[in-house]
Amino acid sequence: MKPNYRRCVSCRKVSPKEDFWRVVRVYPSHQVQLGQGMGRSAYLCPEATCLQAAQKKNRLGKALRSKVPPELYQTLWEKLPLMSSTEQTQDPNDNPRENLKLAALTQQQ
Ligand SMILES: [Zn+2]
User: Fold this and answer.
1) How far is the centre of ligand 1, averaged over its atoms, from the C-alpha of 21 (Å)?
2) How far is ligand 1, taken at its centre, from the CA of residue 56, in Å?
3) Per-residue pLDDT tens digits for 14-49
4) b vs e for 11-29, b when ≥16 Cβ sit within 10 Å of the residue's Cβ?
């Protein structure tokens, strides 16, 4: 693997690390947070499918060997880039992104 390339914990895609969200278990507090920090880190595509899989299958938690707080997933869902206008529907009840989010949140409880 080339330097600065990372692998998504969900879909296993390899990309430059700038393309991913970085989640890090900070040393020595073991607090799991998004972005910068020293410690064990995991990378995730900024995509609903990868985020949902990471949450549902606890891929981030396994990669980090730590419990990932629900608030972190919530933050990621809110950071999810908006889909392009061509993919958006007029009906708010038929929004794939919202449906995925609701499904993930429901499964978590
Ligand atoms: Zn991915």
Assistant:
1) 10
2) 14
3) 999 999 999 999 999 999 999 999 999 999 999 999
4) eeeeeeeeebbbbbbbeee
